[in-house]
Amino acid sequence: MEYIIIFLIGICATTIGTLAGGGGLISLPAMLLLGMPAHSAIGANKVSNTVSSFSSFFHLYRTKRITWKEAYWIIPVSIFGGMSGGFLASRIPADKMMILALILLTFAFITSFIGKGSFTGNGLLKINKISLPGLYGIGIYDGLFGPGQGTLMLYLFGHLNISYLRAVGFVRLATFSSCIGAAAMYIAYGKIIWPMTLALMLGSVTGAQLGVRIAEKLKPQFVKPILRVATVALIIQVFVRAIQ
Q: What is the annotated localization of this protein (predicted)?
């Protein structure tokens, strides 16, 4: 029964995470409530995210919604950003990281009302003075803290005039890139409880495929309201953790 619950958690969290980011709001607390040790729960999420993120990216790549020529540079930038964030994490106090997360998420929420991005554009993803530092900066944030990485990236791609479906594909590739190194470390240090992790992974892959197919049908005018709800939920979670 426990494995079925974890499988369902994976479906729910990754479906939401694919559409708007913030899937970790569901999966990580749920795994902890089921009694999984913290490091094992984080490791299970990293392993499942690695596989599920690539599966949704590959679906959009296979159906020619995105091209490798646009996407390839996301991988080294996200990996390097995540490594930079991991390096800084040991030097920045936890309470300062919480403040940084609250500032970034609040800024993203406010700019969603005044920004030009509407996810209806047909722009191409190129390396420029906004996309490169933006992706690198979010990669640092992911390595430092994590929750909200996908949501922040969706805001960035919306600002860059990228259509919603293609933005989802780019976010999933970035998530794959940032998670693969962390997943390898958790595996190497023996933190993975494989039966639970595999149940979560199967649910996550299912959720990723469900999420990307919902995204294919989602009208652009509904994207920002969904993102705003996810952002507010993230802000509340971070604030609660900050005052505990």
A: Cell membrane
Query: pTM to 2 decimals?
Result: 0.89
For residues 8-31, average pLDDT = 91
Taking every pair of Cα atoms in the chain, the longest distance, rounded to a whole number of angstroms, is 50
**Please, what is the end-to-end C-alpha distance for the chain in angstroms?**
32
How many folded domains does the chain comprise? 1
Of 60 and 103, more confident? 60
Position 233 pLDDT exceeds 80: yes
- Write out the residue range of the structural domain in which residue 113 sits: 2-243
Residues 6+ apart with CB under 8 A from 182: 46, 82
| Contact in structure between 242 and 95 (CB atoms under 8 Å) | yes
Q: Rg of the chain's alpha carbons, rounded to an integer?
A: 17
